[in-house]
């Protein structure tokens, strides 16, 4: 009997302690989900803010969003860093008005990196009431720097087909 009481006490303590561990894990999981939701909102807002700055030719805002080492891989395969991209925008003579629709956002992240996928549809308004529609699939890679997300690599591909093929044309 004297051995049974300590054994029962040990079982009760273990069971009650386990509940606390489970509760802590559940709270941590909810906190993680909440953090991911905040990060998801933050990075998708950055993508939207970037394109607003881009369309407005707000180069200062673009430089605030990007880092000096950010890389943009364009649909033609050319890679530019932030400084080179700013120069391209400055030198572009015909900056036509445009309407932009961002949709189909996808998001995944850990504590340091986030990946965002987005469909970017742009309709340019050219002279003589001509419109040019340009759809793109984009992947943005963000890095958390000093507790703030920054795009470090942006890759976009023009959508030219509905179905993929490996046929050489």
TrEMBL record:
PROSITE patterns: PROKAR_LIPOPROTEIN. It comes from Algoriphagus hitonicola. Transmembrane segments: none annotated. This is DUF4440 domain-containing protein. Pfam families: DUF4440. The lineage of its organism: Bacteria, Pseudomonadati, Bacteroidota, Cytophagia, Cytophagales. Residues 45-149 form the DUF4440 domain. InterPro entries: DUF4440 (IPR027843), NTF2-like_dom_sf (IPR032710). It comes from the Bacteria.
């Amino acid at each position: 009997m004297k051995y049974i009481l300590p054994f029962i006490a040990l079982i009760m303590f273990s069971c009650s302690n386990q509940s606390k561990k489970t509760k802590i894990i559940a709270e941590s999981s909810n906190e993680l989900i909440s953090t991911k939701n905040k990060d998801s909102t933050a990075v998708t807002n950055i993508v939207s803010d970037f394109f607003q700055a881009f369309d407005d030719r707000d180069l200062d805002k673009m430089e605030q969003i990007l880092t000096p080492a950010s890389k943009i891989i364009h649909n033609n395969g050319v890679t530019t860093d932030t400084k080179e991209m700013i120069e391209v925008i400055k030198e572009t003579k015909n900056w036509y008005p445009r309407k932009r629709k961002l949709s189909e956002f996808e998001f995944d992240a850990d504590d340091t990196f986030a990946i965002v996928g987005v469909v970017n549809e742009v309709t340019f308004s050219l002279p003589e009431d001509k419109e040019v529609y340009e759809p793109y699939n984009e992947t943005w890679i963000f890095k958390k720097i000093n507790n703030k997300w920054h795009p470090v690599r942006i890759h976009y591909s023009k959508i030219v087909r509905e179905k993929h093929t490996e046929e050489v044309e």
